[in-house]
């Protein structure tokens, strides 16, 4: 069992050393929300940025350990160079028209309008109800 534990600890250290994307967002109450972008449900908060990031290291360690123990795969870090920042989406003509009108009303390009709307939707999605991973971790902690 000791070698298994040391193997898990070594793997946790290896994964922690990889360049995972950390997101830090200020909450309305002045506290800070932090998450690992590649790890669904790996998030925490802190009163300061430093505290949130420190707490995130602990959350990340727990997240990795839980996934290793459950035999779940650990996602690799997102490589920024793998994304060009461009992609094509086919949408109905009526939606294209509505988006173009809204962009015109806001006085921005369609591209800028859609980029902002996607960013807002993505930020909202990251704050939704707990994922399966979060729920499992909470049950184990009790």
Question: How does this model look, in words?
Answer:
By secondary structure, the chain is mainly alpha-helical. The chain is built from 5 helices and 3 strands; from the N terminus they run αβββαααα. It folds into 2 domains: 1-79, Double Stranded RNA Binding Domain (2-Layer Sandwich); 84-136. It has helices at residues 2-16, 49-70, 93-106, 110-126, 132-141, and strands at 22-26, 32-36, 43-46. A 3-stranded antiparallel beta sheet has the order 1-2-3, covered by helices on one side. A hairpin with a 6-residue loop joins strand 2 (32-36) and strand 3. The protein is elongated, with a radius of gyration of 19 Å. The relative contact order is 0.12.
How many domain modules?
A: 2
**Unreliable runs, pLDDT <50, ≥5 residues?**
none
Describe the sheet with the most strands. 3 strands, antiparallel
Shape: elongated
**H-E order:** HEEEHHHH
Number of strands: 3
